[in-house]
Design goal:
Order of helices and strands: HHHHHHHHHHHHHHHHHHHHHH
Number of helices: 22
Largest sheet: none
Strand content: under 5%
Structural class: mainly alpha
Helix content: over 70%
Low-confidence stretches: 1-9
Mean pLDDT: 86
Radius of gyration: 31 Å
């Protein structure tokens, strides 16, 4: 009976511990969000600090913080020491948040790991509160300036919100320490596989959210009459004006039709020739000399790491008026003078496809080389015993073994048919070939950045994303219907 009661008490305590950890993790996530959201920056203690600066920027970029007070330093309203206190306090808070983040991750482990994580979390919470005290001290120094009207001292509401969260997390960590001290610790630190795998995947999930989903917040510009530098306000809300403008303006319609033609043509060339990396990987794997194979693979992979600016510089050295080809043709007497082969509008699509293929074929072949290494070697031995030649083994074993990988990449290419990238076309564009090289990404860039029509460029970007998602699910459904396999 006593053991049963102890078990129920232990179970109740463990439930309490779990709920406390849920609250700690929620506080940690909120603290991390506050680091990167300018609207929740507790360090914005002066109107001279930009509303676009986050706490993370204040703590890691001293130059960005100091640049906000340039006039105040020149007029001697503030000293560098005042700003350094604010900078150091923000940096201390970042360290504390990182420590509590480690506590949140270690809370997924066994009791021994939880105890260590709780100690780290308590230290992190104390550090966070020290940083908050430093921000308050910096605020008091700003209030004592000789010209407060110019400095505009202000005390952000986010300060109190974050302070409450830090204190709550500290209290929970102290309570956790008291409860966990009653449990015996294991001999080793341990975490279940599912949790360790989740923590390994977590950085990539965060990056995906930051760079793929968070930018979707910018879609709101499509519904406002917005110009760069202005603030969004409801009096500039225009609804679907820019969506209808896209189809009502004849000049815009002509530009979009031309852009879509170039985009689909160049993407179509890429899809039609998407088998080239697979073929290259097959022939590369068939080379008997390992040294020569590594040499070829290295030489074909290096161009992927060269920027398009350098690629264009190479193209200029070869195809410009004073380039390699013109020099040879003039010296042989075939041409009277050098010709700039880049300044023409003939076969532009093929030229862009050629440069893209040269740059990426070696890198794209790596995934096929990895897939070839996963094919059962006994199949090749059996085929060799049956008298199959090299090309027969390639056609009947290697190619079928690579087809699943090929179809997955093909579906992804179809989904990204409207995405050609911008760098290549931006550097190769000139007055002669501009009409043929203008793809959708480059058009959106020019429309938004150069022409300043941010709402219209946002509308086009939205439609591009929606169409890409539709194409992805459509291609996946077609693959499932024809091949019986799906990647989603």
């Amino acid at each position: 009976m006593e053991k049963a009661v102890d078990a129920r008490v232990s179970g109740a305590q463990r439930t309490k511990v779990d709920w406390m950890y849920y609250l700690i993790r929620a506080g940690v996530i909120f603290s991390i969000a506050c680091l990167f959201l300018p609207g929740l920056n507790p360090a914005r203690i002066s109107g001279m600090i930009s509303s676009k600066l986050s706490l993370f920027t204040v703590g890691v970029s001293y130059s960005s913080l100091v640049s906000q007070f340039g006039r105040a330093f020149r007029k001697e309203w503030l000293t560098y020491q005042d700003v350094q206190i604010l900078y150091a306090s923000a940096l201390v808070i970042i360290v504390g948040v990182v420590a509590n983040g480690a506590n949140g991750c270690m809370s997924l482990g066994n009791t021994r790991m939880r105890k260590l994580g709780t100690k780290i979390g308590m230290a992190g919470s104390v550090v966070e509160l020290v940083g908050m005290a430093g921000i308050y001290a910096a605020y008091l120094r700003v209030c004592e300036t000789s010209n407060p009207d110019k400095i505009e001292p202000m005390f952000p509401t986010a300060y109190w919100i974050l302070l409450v969260v830090f204190v709550l997390v500290l209290v929970l960590n102290i309570a956790q320490t008291g409860i966990l001290s009653r449990y015996p610790s294991e001999d080793k630190y341990h975490m279940e596989t599912k949790f360790s795998l989740f923590l390994m995947l977590l950085p990539f999930i965060v990056l995906c959210i930051l760079f793929s989903y968070l930018p979707l917040w910018g879609w709101r510009y499509a519904f406002f009459d917005y110009k760069a530098g202005q603030a969004l306000s409801w009096d500039k809300f225009v609804g679907f004006k820019w969506f209808t403008q896209l189809f009502k303006n004849a000049a815009t319609v002509r530009d979009v039709i031309n852009v879509m033609k170039n985009t689909l043509a160049m993407s179509g060339l890429g899809i039609i020739t998407s088998w080239l990396p697979m073929a290259f990987a097959i022939f590369l794997s068939e080379m008997k000399s390992s040294k020569f194979r590594r040499f070829v693979q290295t030489c074909t992979t290096i161009p992927n790491f060269i920027s398009w600016v350098l690629v264009y510089a190479i193209a200029v050295c070869i195809f410009s008026t004073d380039g390699f080809i013109s020099s040879i043709m003039v010296n042989l007497g075939i041409w009277d003078s050098g010709k700039n082969l880049l300044m023409n509008n003939s076969h532009t699509w093929l030229q862009m496809w050629g440069w893209g293929t040269w740059k990426g074929i070696g890198w794209s072949a790596i995934i096929y080389i990895a897939a070839i290494s996963g094919i059962d070697q006994q199949l090749y031995e059996s085929a060799r015993v049956d008298g199959a030649g090299r090309f027969q083994r390639m056609w009947h074993i290697t190619v079928p073994g690579l087809m699943p990988t090929f179809f997955v990449l093909l579906l992804m290419s179809i989904a990204n048919i409207l995405t050609n990238g911008m760098d290549q076309y931006l550097v190769f564009e000139n007055a002669v070939n501009s009409n043929s090289v203008m793809v959708l990404d480059l058009y959106v860039y020019k429309l938004g950045i150069q022409d300043g029509s941010i709402p219209l460029s946002t509308v086009i970007g939205m439609l591009k994303s929606i169409i890409s998602v539709i194409l992805l699910f459509g291609a996946n459904g077609f693959s499932k219907l024809v091949r019986g396999e799906s990647i989603i």
